């Protein structure tokens, strides 16, 4: 992967989409500031996306995925990487929901889980995408909210 690539938020002519993109930019800027204050790089350099994700990560014109394809699920990570985790897929077990990314599955890791495992083993800094706690995603519960 070429050096120097970072997360890009593409512009949109759609006013509703643009509103959410501005909110994401604000969220990523706050995450970057917090990381810098803790002595880490605040530049998101790689992205791990699950099979179930918000519409912003779907293929298509002006999508986050198209703008960031070289950074997504690359499989190789190092301690200098700041990795954005984005997955809205949940599975329900009894009364608790859990992310598919953090499933207790320990063998036959999915591509998503293998990427996460590789990033953790490399010592990369992990940042949760705003979608992990987005109450506006219809039909999904935040995995970090009390159920």
Q: How many individual β-strands?
A: 5
Report the principal-axis shape: globular
Number of helices: 3
- Residues in helices, as a percent range: 25-40%
Strand order of the largest sheet: 1-2-5
- Distance N to C terminus: 40 Å
Strand content: 5-15%
Largest sheet: 3 strands, parallel
Order of helices and strands: HEHEEEHE
Radius of gyration: 15 Å
Which consecutive residue ranges, at least 5 long each, have pLDDT under 50?
Answer: 136-147
Mean pLDDT: 75
Instruction: Please state the structural category.
Output: alpha/beta
- Count of folded domains: 1
Structure description:
The chain is α/β, with parallel strands linked by helices and 147 residues long. It has one domain. The chain is 27% helix and 14% strand. It has three helices and five strands, in the order αβαβββαβ. The chain has helices at 15-37, 64-68, 111-122; strands at 46-49, 82-86, 90-93, 96-99, 125-128. The strands form two sheets. A three-stranded parallel β-sheet has the order 1-2-5, covered by helices on one side. The chain has a two-stranded antiparallel sheet with strand order 3-4. Helix 2 links the parallel strand 1 (46-49) and strand 2. The protein is globular and about 40 Å long. It starts with 14 loop residues before the first helix and ends in a 19-residue tail after the last strand.
């Amino acid at each position: 992967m070429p050096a120097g690539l970072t997360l890009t938020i593409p512009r949109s002519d759609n006013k509703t989409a643009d509103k959410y993109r501005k909110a994401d930019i604000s969220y990523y800027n706050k995450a970057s500031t917090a990381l810098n204050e803790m002595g880490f790089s605040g530049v998101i350099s790689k992205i791990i996306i699950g099979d179930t994700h918000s519409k912003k990560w779907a293929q298509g014109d002006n999508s986050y995925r198209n703008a960031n394809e070289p950074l997504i699920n690359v499989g190789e990570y190092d301690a200098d990487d700041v990795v954005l985790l984005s997955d809205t897929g949940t599975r329900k077990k009894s009364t608790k929901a859990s992310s598919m990314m953090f499933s207790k599955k320990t063998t036959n890791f999915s591509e998503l889980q293998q990427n996460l495992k590789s990033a953790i083993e490399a010592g990369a800094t992990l940042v949760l995408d705003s979608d992990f706690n987005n109450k506006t995603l219809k039909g999904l519960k935040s995995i970090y909210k009390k159920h």
